[in-house]
């Protein structure tokens, strides 16, 4: 094997190994981040409470400085959160998890939403929250 | 000025003389007119003496001839003839009868047409009308002057035949409705202690503090706009003066106004109209020793002359005297609120604006476009709420942007914010007290028609967070849904304030003073401060941290200034103003929302009241709390 081919084979082998570590069945978890993404039918959401469960969560942060996040753990794999600010479709919270490969195991639920005038949404129809890398 | 005996008769002259020599007149109980009318009066009153129509007056002295009417004389063509100096007599009979007289006059003459009827026992309530030589143009009209008797004084612009028409009020009539009309020229002989001409500072009549001057407002002088009598006196620094004119008190339907001028004779220091009914009175604290000038004039400009007595008194100052002017030339400042850094915010009735007065006395316009701003208060979020005569409460951001905020109250007059952030306002349209959530949601209406007076007016929050309001001469409070009278004053009380001891500082503009009551409503100092001209709203100052301090400020609406009472006389700091953040941190509020507990039921109720008022604590309420305490990213505290 020529020298360039040897280097390519080493890089490829390392890449395959790295990919295998994200596989939950592989037995080697990789810590990382997941993003909670909001789907909303409204353009004037101001605050939301939510619940994330299904797998351990190390911590959570708001995706940007315009949002204020409060969290509370309930048990080992459930977290309640309140995020306040001008919410819109898209990323709202970053979850720091011990195993990003377990993303599919997380369930995120919108509990309450208030508009920017503090009024509580009477219905949560059309709202969704997903956790994904 | 004329001889009182010729004008009132001997009995009235005795009364006049007695009053001239009398001790200071007893305080007269002020009449509570409607709050709306009062605001309108404050807004529309001129700072300077009002211009008046140059209409003359009076006066029949020696009557040459008595001429009886000759019916029919109901029209100009059938009018009866009379001459100046004559006395015409007749009867308004039957109902609807009109008697017409004519008199030939020369341009420039001052005609006096004076009815004697009710004053001599006739049941006639006469009305008089003066008609031009064309027989149709009405030049002047009068119903009541000497009681029910009428009088017209008029300067004739051109030579010709003028007509005088007498009727009974309400088109009444009957054989007993007799009258006499005195036709004469107005004359203004010098009597009393004034010395005409005294229509400017240079010719002012001298008077001493503690004395009373007497004179007459008579248009027949050198002042083409009507008579203005100037008086000059010397006053020492530290003296608080009371200038008090009696004219209506002498039994005439007249409206004198008074003003005080500085030593330059032109700078108006104080002005008053109608402090004692139609008569006027003002108080003023002299800061610089010197000569000052006081004037008497006719507010109504009726043209009819009237006598007056002008009292110049030195009065005992209260613990809040002397006052210090913090800002002036503010138009018509009425409502007053203190910001969280100590700046004063003042509503200017005439400028449709709110101005900010800094601690250094610098005045800047804070917000514009608010029609006739009345009551002012800061809300839980640091916005300034302003009740306007256009029927709305405006919300003004810290940047000065005003928007209509509460629009479902009929006629909001005054506004206050409770420690829980709730907004209270008084509604003149139905004499009610209304409560709103901190974000403007209507919550409850409390009928207050039973309190009488002018109904609920200026409102303030008491030490326990309950709303107190003035209904005129009484302060009431709403406690547990029930209205309770707290105190009664001899004067109409405007926008009052509490100190931390529960004492109430009540401005009584009609008396030109601030009174001090304790928490039970007992008087502590009838004269807490006598220096103001007519204080309308008081508020305690705050330091740079927002803490209320023992400094009391007030608006002096009619003279366009804001002043501070002597802080040495203010025993306690003011009651904390408006919204007070509860003692729990944001994290606790958030944790509780997420099931962590840590807050009491009262805390949760507070948070709900701060937010969306849906009966439970939720994420909308948390958002409101963050906004209130400056917890939103990029936000500064509104406290």
Spell out the blueprint of helices and strands.
The complex is a heterodimer of chains A (133) and B (639).
Chain A: H1 3-21, E1 32-39, E2 45-53, E3 59-62, E4 68-73, E5 78-87, E6 90-97, E7 107-115, E8 128-132
Chain B: H1 4-8, H2 10-20, H3 35-44, E1 65-68, E2 80-81, E3 86-91, E4 99-105, E5 110-116, E6 126-131, E7 138-142, E8 151-155, E9 160-168, E10 178-185, E11 205-206, E12 212-217, E13 228-235, E14 240-246, E15 256-261, E16 268-273, E17 281-285, E18 290-298, E19 306-315, E20 324-327, E21 333-338, E22 344-348, E23 353-357, E24 363-368, E25 373-378, E26 384-388, E27 393-396, E28 402-406, E29 412-417, E30 423-427, E31 432-436, E32 442-447, E33 459-461, E34 467-470, E35 474-479, E36 482-488, E37 497-498, E38 504-508, E39 513-517, E40 523-529, E41 535-542, E42 548-556, E43 561-564, H4 586-593, H5 601-610, H6 619-628
Parallel strand pairs in B: 1-3, 2-4, 11-13
Antiparallel strand pairs in B: 3-10, 4-9, 5-8, 5-10, 6-7, 6-9, 12-19, 13-18, 14-17, 14-19, 15-16, 15-18, 20-43, 21-22, 22-23, 23-24, 25-26, 26-27, 27-28, 29-30, 30-31, 31-32, 33-34, 34-35, 35-36, 37-38, 38-39, 39-40, 41-42, 42-43
Helix pairs in contact in B: 4-6, 5-6
